[in-house]
Design goal:
Blueprint: H1 3-14, H2 19-31, H3 33-38, H4 40-44, H5 47-51, E1 56-65, E2 71-82, E3 88-94, H6 100-116, E4 122-128, H7 137-151, E5 160-163, H8 170-184, H9 204-221, E6 231-234, H10 239-250, E7 254-255, E8 257-260, E9 263-267, H11 273-285, H12 291-296, E10 300-304, H13 308-315, E11 321-323, H14 333-341, E12 346-348, H15 357-365, E13 369-371, H16 373-376, H17 378-393, H18 399-423, H19 430-449
Helix pairs in contact: 1-2, 2-6, 6-19, 7-8, 9-10, 9-17, 9-18, 10-11, 13-14, 14-15, 17-18, 18-19
The structure holds NADPH dihydro-nicotinamide-adenine-dinucleotide phosphate and (2Z)-2-iminopentanedioic acid.
(2Z)-2-iminopentanedioic acid binds at residues 89-91, 113, 163, 165, 192, 352, 380-381, 384.
Length: 452
């Protein structure tokens, strides 16, 4: 058996009950196979064995009091996976499905994503099984404060810098940062995604969605195509989905779907600027459901209980582009087949690990331009890195400056993926290219440190 297969087997045995982590490890390690013969020094130093074990895992209890005066208890996590190339960096997820395996998969992916950004950031992820849905602002505040009461001792501007992810947006980052400042009495950049008034960066809210569209544009350009005139499916209706819609519109494309965990809307006329403004109010201020979009606009279908991919499959909805932007494993192989059958030629992953391993295989066999999450959605964390830079310099850049840096970073990531894929014998394979390009930098740093 190869070293790679041995390490995968070791993870399956030693980390039972963590299917998402197993999936991420398989996805990354199998594509690293060509590095084994090129870098015998990595094998000797047991880099592959070492990289799948986090530097440390922090798990804690989060007790808080709800609006009825009842005590609630949640689980909190921060997985500090690798600081080989910089401080741990990665989001916090608040969702009832959160468990150790999910945070480990996200933290593991983050190592390679952050390496690809060209910025000096290690990989980490955290979160809680707390469900912000249906909670009052007061309850969310009490929960965030209780979470930070423990997290504060583990983070720092040169140690670990969390940010948002599912269920953690501007409101939550504000409450978390307020509590940090109260306890520690300083203004260090220990979180990104902050409000603009207190150290946030312009374009950070937009960055993940914009970046996923820039990445799609780069992939399409290799075939002489562009976003203009294309029809796109977007799943989810949160932060990533919203700004994916905005950038597709700006580039002359049309988005026809959005979803949440209750259902999907199809708007064949396209989600234009005015409708997007309505969506931002609906989701970010009123915290409503996507069904209300269908009630608001004529000619919009709502499919209760169905995902975007169900609707494409069952109703033969034509799309040229797909931006999965909700959650992991939303696209199984049947949905991937339905996308191909209905005209999709480019998939750019806004969400983390939204496609199953066999769905990815099918996209690649069918010659779909497949942009894996750790490359396609890296614009979010890259712009977090730019927020850290601005905070360190004690200044702030304008929108155009940040956007052009983001765009440049997405181009660099695209180029790095293609170059690594070419060098390691799989031209055009963005998955292998992203994994190898991200990995080599981290592995070389680990080699430099010796056995620690
Ligand atoms: P939000 O919380 O803003 O939005 C999430 C959206 O996805 C909501 O519409 C939500 O619906 C839907 N969703 C979440 N979980 C599920 C589920 N289990 N089943 C069906 N629908 C679901 O999160 P983001 O937009 O920030 O994150 C979306 C994805 O992008 C995640 O995979 C995240 O890890 C990834 N990502 C985010 C980045 C960022 O900067 N925010 C950066 C890089 C990646 P509902 O409201 O019903 O739950
Ligand atoms: O998955 C991700 O890259 C994020 N949720 C963003 C992390 C960050 O630190 O901005």
């Amino acid at each position: 058996m190869s070293v790679i297969q041995d390490v995968i087997a070791m993870v399956l045995e030693k980390d039972p009950g963590q299917p998402e982590f197993h999936q991420a490890v398989k996805e990354v390690l199998t594509t690293l196979e060509p590095t084994v013969s090129k870098h015998p020094e990595f094998v000797k130093a047991r880099i592959f064995e070492r990289i799948v074990i986090p530097d440390r895992v922090i798990m804690f209890r989060v007790p808080w009091v709800d609006d009825r005066g009842e005590v609630q208890v949640n689980r909190g996590y921060r997985v500090q996976f690798s600081n080989a190339i910089g401080p741990y960096k990665g989001g916090l997820r608040f969702h009832p499905s959160v468990n150790l395996g999910i945070i480990k998969f996200l933290g593991f992916e983050q190592i390679f994503k952050n390496s690809l950004t060209t910025l000096p950031m290690g990989g980490g992820k955290g979160g809680s099984d707390f469900d912000p849905k249906g909670k009052s602002d007061n309850e969310v505040m009490h929960f965030c404060h209780a979470f930070m009461m423990e997290l504060y001792r583990h983070i720092g501007p040169d140690t670990d810098v969390p940010a948002g992810d599912i269920g953690v947006g501007g409101r939550e980052i504000g409450y978390l940062y307020g509590c940090y400042k109260k306890i520690v009495n300083d203004n260090a950049c220990v979180l990104t995604g902050k409000g603009i008034e207190y150290g946030g960066s312009l374009i950070r809210p937009e960055a993940t969605g914009y970046g996923a569209v820039y990445f799609a544009g780069e992939m399409m350009a290799t075939r002489g195509e562009e976003i203009k005139g294309k029809v796109a499916a977007v799943s989810g209706s949160g932060n990533v989905a919203q700004y994916t819609v905005e950038k597709v519109n700006q580039l002359g494309g049309k988005v026809v779907t959005l979803s949440d965990s209750n259902g999907t809307i199809v708007d064949e006329a396209g989600i234009d600027e005015a409708k997007l403004a309505y969506l931002l109010g609906l989701k970010n201020l009123r915290r409503g459901r996507i069904k209300e979009y269908a009630d608001e606009y004529k000619g919009v279908e709502y499919y209760a209980g169905q995902s975007v991919w169900d609707v494409i499959k069952d109703h033969s909805l034509h799309v040229d582009l797909a931006f999965p932007s909700a959650t992991e494993n939303e696209i199984c192989v049947e949905y991937a087949q339905a996308l191909v059958s209905n005209g999709c030629t480019c998939v750019s992953e806004g969400a983390n690990m939204p496609s199953s391993l066999d769905a990815i295989k099918l996209f690649q066999e069918e010659d779909v331009l497949y942009g894996p999450a750790k490359a396609a959605n890296a614009g979010g964390v890259a712009t977090s890195g730019l927020e850290m830079s601005q905070n360190s310099m004690r200044l702030s850049w304008g929108r155009e400056e940040v956007d052009s840096r983001l765009h440049q970073i997405m181009k660099s990531i695209h180029k790095a993926c293609l170059e690594a894929a070419q060098t390691y014998g799989r031209p055009g394979d963005y998955l292998m290219g992203a994994n190898i390009a991200g990995f080599i930098k981290v592995a070389n740093a680990m080699m430099a440190y010796g056995v620690v």
